[in-house]
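Pinned message: reference record for Transmembrane protein
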Amino acid sequence: MGIKWTDPAVITRTSKVFGAFTMVLTGVALWDVLSTLWFEWQILSGKRKWKWPMTIYFIARLAMLSHIFAITINRNALSEVPCKELTFMSKFCDVVGTCASSLILVLRTRAVWHRNRKVTVLMGLLFLGQIAMWSQTFRFSKAQWNQTRMLCDVLSTAPRMMMVGVWGYTMIFDFIILVVCVYQLISHVSSTLGKVLLRDGIAYFCAAFVANLLQTIFAGLQLNPVMNIMFLPFALVVSVIAATTVFRNVFTAYDAFSNDTGHSGNSGHSSSRHHEGSVLRTGARILFKHNTTITTKAMSENEISLAGYSRKKSDVEAGAVSVRKEDDGDGEHRPDTEVNGTPEKRQNL
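Predicted structure (tokens):
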């Protein structure tokens, strides 16, 4: 005989499982935040240059923590809690966290494509569509305090087709981001940052796809109100952790590159004006180029942009580094600087 999922006793048991599951996710979310506090501290202390996409990074992290804490408080309440407010907070943070995660990848894809207008418009329209889809789910989420069970009982969630549509749209959106980004990166796979972005993009898609697929399946089954949202916090935690990891890895990849160039610059070898190397920008644009010279050039079509300045790394024997400041659209002139075997003033990210 099959399980009668709408039976009150079954709903009670699944609610306990959901509560235990959210406690595990709370631990995972806290572990991720605490283990990467060094990055936030570098930003807040001014050691790493502030860039506006970092705002989205912080919003995604705060939304993840707020969402998971709201559910944890609800499932482990010692006295009556405001169910309406907690439910709204949980839902709002879920929407913000999911959309912020996608936006991080949208901005990364736009940077890889040199801020191409067609790609920007495509990504922008898809992102607005995601916001519109998610905003429709607010009015359906309802909960009521249950004095016997000492928690907020989930009374209703969004209709089946809406939930499947929202999560399906998110999965398709992530897939489009992956395809567009990989298409541009595949020709730069030999460069260090190209490998990082390609690896992280595929890893993000796989992690987010599995998490969102589980939530889509349970939302489509409509077993009971609790089972409908069983994997909702899981999908958010996985998406935010994956997206913010991609964001951090761009900066840490640059840090490793910068250390290598600094070491080579002090090695005492003679410099070469023509060599094979790569250019890396971090921030608003990422720039890769092979078979380049130290002299300043305008960005060519085979470059990938992503920062406020760029460096050129020569062969190990060359010991020459060129730092090229560029205009990121703010109207401020950025001079060129060349370094040959002697470290010069560095620009922080």
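Pinned by admin. Summary line: The chain has two domains: 8-255, 269-340.
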